[in-house]
Amino acid sequence: MIRILADENIYKLDQFLPREIDLATYDPEKPIPALDGYDALLVRSVSKLNKTVLPVLPSSLKVIGTGSSGSDHIDIDFFENRNVKVIDAKGSNANAVSEYVLTSLLLWSIKRGKALTEFKIGIIGAGATGTAVGNQLSKFDISFCYYDPPRAKRDSSFKSVSLEKVLNCNILTFHVPLTKTDNHSTFHWLDDEKLNGKNFELIINAARGGVINELALLEAIEDERILDVVIDVWEAEPDFNTALVEKAFISTPHIAGYSEQAKLNASKMLAEQMASIFNFDLPDFSELYSSKKLDIAVLNYSIYEFILRLHPIREYDADIRELCLRPDKKILFQRLRIDRPYRYEYPFLFLDRIDFPEMDKLKKLGVKFL
After folding, report:
1. Does domain 94-251 have CATH number 3.40.50.720?
2. In the chain, pLDDT over 70 holds for what percent of residues?
3. Staple partner for 259: which of 60, 91, 96, 146, CB 3.0–4.6 Å?
4. Could you list the active site residues?
């Protein structure tokens, strides 16, 4: 029998596994239980795994997996050098994050009275998420360019713009992993040097805390070289920079990729990879990907108000601002990420056909109408 130990918050994982799998769960706020006898350990990004955390690996352990799109919280080399395969859910939340970025842009555009078609957006990182962001921007005829030299090196069909060109964009949005060791380190990629002499309308970070030097960012905001920021990820998570929260147009507790469909995707990807490794058959989980009908009576809603009925981004923003003076804000930050029901992505929402002057924007977001 295959035995799996998993973070209890990996969404509906049991429904993606056959009944013959022995699945046990643990509370991520407590130490990881003893792994003796387990074939696989599945975690989330809140759990750091390395030699210090797991100095001794049982011979039974064959797989370590993360239900996160990124794997920078796992020392991959350490485990794979000991014949433990590391798997992840890369790309599982690409659409959810792209919707977060576009939602932020639309809300910012409306609130600031600025037309997005007048600006150029630089997408830093052209992996699954960055590409999804580009696809979303294309639907709204918003000009953008990709900056991703590592991808350009390995993919001859992809062209990255120069550093100078991307830094001349009006808006930057980040979609890179956090790396510190290779020739293309992303740690503090946006720093004093790159910000010197530059002016930006808006900076969005929904990638990883540490990609932006938060102190340099705050200084640029104070000097009005950056007019607005949207920040979802924080350098000292689960702690967060309260000064940056207060200055941000939108600040959220690392939830850009949190949607019903993204969480299902992550569990599905982990189950599929384990099925390949351990040679078992998966159950039918198609019914999990259901759509949801919303009953919204339009009472002179603006497009701004309508978007906020579909996406809880401002609710999370209010929540994190309330934590700024709390001594237990680190603990509460984590709870904000798991206590709220996951939103449905736009293509999984459908409404009754309504008489709404800006319904075309909702259709471009992917909302369906009966």
Report:
1. yes
2. 99
3. 96
4. 208, 237, 254
